Amino acid sequence: MEKTMSSEFKIVEEPKNTLAMNPKKFAMWLFIGSVGMLFASLTSAYIVRQAEGNWLFFELPGILTVSTVVILLSSVTMQWAYWSSRKDSLQMVKYLVSVTTILGVAFLVLQFYGWKALVENQVFLVGNPSGSFLYVITGLHGLHIISAIVFLLLVLISAFRFRVHSKNLLQIEMCTTYWHFLGGLWLYLFVFLLLYR
Amino acid sequence: MATVDLHTHTETHAHTEHEHEEHHHGNFWTNYVFSEDHKVIAKQFLITGMAWALIGGVLSVMFRLQLGFPDSDLSWLRPLIGGWLTPEGKIDPEFYLALVTMHGTIMVFFVLTAGLSGTFSNFLIPLQIGARDMASGFMNMLSYWFFFLSSVIMFTSLFISTGPASGGWVIYPPLSALPQAMQGSGLGMTLWLVAMALFIVSSLLGGINYITTVINLRTKGMSFTKLPLTIWAFFFTAIIGVLSFPVLFAAALLLIFDRSFGTSFYLSDIYIGGEALPNQGGSPILFQHLFWFLGHPEVYIVLLPALGITSEIIATNSRKPIFGYKAMVGSMLFIAILSFVVWAHHMFVTGMNPFLGSIFTLLTLIIAVPSAVKIFNYVTTLWKGNIIFTPAMLFSIGLVSFFLTGGITGIFLGNSAIDIQLHDTYFVVAHFHLVMGSASFFGMVAGVYHWFPKMFGRMLDDRLGYIHFWLTIVGVYLVFFPMHYIGIAGFPRRYYSWTNFETFSGFADLNMLVSIAAIITLVAQLLFVFNFIYSIFRGRVASANPWNSNTLEWTTPRSPGHGNWPGEIPTVYRWPYDYSKPGAKDDFIPQHIPYSETPESNFPHENELVKLEMDNGSAIIVEDKKH
């Protein structure tokens, strides 16, 4: 008898939302997962290749530290923008998304200067794989940042049309997730490149 | 604020049911070409996949002609391959390598990945979980068109003057990285890489969509424990794809850099004509690691959907519940996990640390356990069933047969010591063609026979189906069984000719037999193509549920329109395998029949559920903790 009682309590459940997540948001997480696999495979290829020796050692350009700070800062402004949209302070949203976009572009410019510093340091794309890996990894990350900046611009356009507010959060939420992911990804890559040289 | 509300509305239109009715009308282009409907996209994938299968089959017959009849005059092929014949009427050796490469690439990726997953994941996921369409119809459409673009580029590469990629479907560098290595490593290889990059994009778009749909768009009551095994299989396949295809992308990206920008990821210490290349410090083994980290999961991307389709067809046509539903799901999960940790068994002879080889041997052999569980469950499902031998059923049983015969040789090949002898011989060719190639192909064909009525509203001809089946299964075994012997004798794969080696002068007759069987098998497929095309237009009109099956797709009308169900989506009350339930009126009870309507066949615990159905209206979900 006790069995039926307990099962009755367990069984009844509103089945409407089997998983309380918007499909688009869920797809975004899966996309993030596959981008994560892309960089995981590149960094593990890096480790495997490095273990075989004949590896050119060089210092990472100092400017990459600055770009790391910039991208972390942009994550803060992005999160702030998201919070503002939840509180319906539409002016702040416009302002903060713009700032994030500018910081994102600044990050790309800094990465480019990082490449320039590498070239001055006689580290080229063509040459020892240690340098090639650095260019490919940073370049590929940069491409993803460009895609995120396009996404930011879309959010910005929506914000200027007053379409980003507490009842319409999906777009900015997805953009925030993506932007945080790319920031976190860069942090991982930066620490990784510092540790394995 | 009106604009604001409007916008919220359009964003969520994919899930609201009313608005779907607006999509019914459209012109030819939006309905049949750039369609976002999952059923149309599935058919597009199927027809493209079938075209590729024919091309891949023709290529294989061409190189089998060379292998089986090395002395014959093939001048009659000149209209087809023109300059690729030598003046003596032989296939050009480099073109032979191109044929082998393209056969592999086409069959593995374009037929058994896109053609199989693309068709059946697209067609069955929304229909079997009770959804109006995929999570994102637009992404789904993009997925097909990226695949189409990739197909066009790969197809074009067959016709360029330097020939398509020729370094084997695994495109190992340095062969694939240096245009000087062979003709096919020039433009052909570039086109191969571009096509595969697009293919990866297509797979990711598709896979992300499949996973999202399975998780988020199930109908009321469709808990995970009530999912048909097909859906479980597509779900695991999509997860494997989303995790492994980016790795192939990384491998290909670094190869592109090596080929086009002069980097040295995979190249080192190479001399061409006595001249050293500038590339220093690369590692060709690195490519193999990256490639096989995709390559091995790819085997299961190809196989799992076929296994899922088989589970469904065998249960339906045995008129019995699937034996060990949870064991089936568990073994698929286990296979999916293991598929990521066995890749180095493709690399036993690359000078790998023998200790590492032992670990990979162990992990590889563990895969035999879930595989055996699956075979056991298929056989026990068939055991004492009221078996109906439809063509689909025959092909499913054929799959089980191939999975067993091909799987057993995997146990030998998975041993790092035995692999020293068998590596890159015809034994390997025989193994993977049976366990992966033929098994998956049979799953795909079985799926077409089984779901053709739902796809086109008509039945395929049974008699042609039986002829097709018997010719194909006998043909396949005649092709691949002798290859085991040829392989054990040490015949290496991908060789143009063995006439230069006294050791390999034997087995010429066996090779001839293989080639003849290959030709017969290919011709048998034409029967199927004829049956397919004929039945689309002239086939017997199908009823809504011709196989008396339980899953939700058979509750739709004969030709489901956009949105799949004209009225409300049915609610699911029971698992999909209530066949021949004791006491029931019919020998099947579809998933949408509540327990309250079947008092005569309910088990005691199911009678308890009836009360809840009453109390709670139609919407209940059962957590399957008591089974």
Task: List the topology elements.
The complex is a heterodimer of chains A (197) and B (627).
Chain A: H1 2-11, H2 23-51, H3 63-86, H4 90-120, H5 129-160, H6 170-195
Chain B: H1 2-11, H2 28-33, H3 38-68, H4 78-81, H5 93-129, H6 137-157, H7 187-216, H8 229-260, E1 271-272, E2 275-276, H9 284-318, H10 325-338, H11 354-366, H12 368-382, H13 391-413, H14 416-422, H15 426-456, H16 462-488, H17 508-538, H18 604-615
Antiparallel strand pairs in B: 1-2
Helix pairs in contact in B: 3-5, 3-6, 3-17, 5-6, 5-7, 5-8, 5-9, 5-15, 6-7, 7-8, 8-9, 8-10, 9-13, 9-15, 10-12, 12-13, 13-15, 13-16, 15-16, 16-17
Q: What is the CA-CA span between the terminal residues of chain A?
A: 66 Å
What name is given to the CATH topology of chain A?
Answer: Four Helix Bundle (Hemerythrin (Met), subunit A)
Rounded radius of gyration of chain A (Å): 22 Å
Average residue-wise pLDDT of chain A? 89
Look at the structure and give the CATH class of chain B: Mainly Alpha
CATH superfamily of chain B: Cytochrome c oxidase-like, subunit I domain
Helical content of chain B stands at: 55-70%
Q: Shape of chain B from CA axes?
A: globular
Output the number of helix runs of chain A.
6
Low-pLDDT runs of chain A: 1-17
> How do the strands of the widest beta sheet of chain B line up side by side?
1-2
Radius of gyration of chain B: 25 Å
Short summary of the structure?
The complex is a heterodimer of chains A (197) and B (627). With 197 residues, chain A is an all-alpha fold. Chain A is built from six helices and no strands.
Q: What does this protein look like?
A:
- The complex is a heterodimer of chains A (197) and B (627).
- Chain A is mainly α.
- Chain A has one domain (24-195): Up-down Bundle (Four Helix Bundle (Hemerythrin (Met), subunit A)).
- Helix content of chain A is 77%, strand content 0%.
- Chain A is built from 6 helices and no strands.
- Chain B has one domain (35-538): Up-down Bundle (Cytochrome C Oxidase, Chain A).
- With 627 residues, chain B is an all-alpha fold.
- Chain B is built from 18 helices and 2 strands.
- Chain B is globular, with a radius of gyration of 25 Å.
- Chain B has a two-stranded antiparallel sheet with strand order 1-2.
- In chain B, helix 5 (93-129) packs antiparallel against helix 6, helix 5 (93-129) packs parallel to helix 7 (187-216) and helix 15 runs antiparallel to helix 16 (462-488).
- Classes of the chains: A mainly alpha (197), B mainly alpha (627).
- Chains A and B meet through helix 1, helix 2 and helix 5 of A and helix 1, helix 7, helix 8, helix 9 and helix 18 of B.
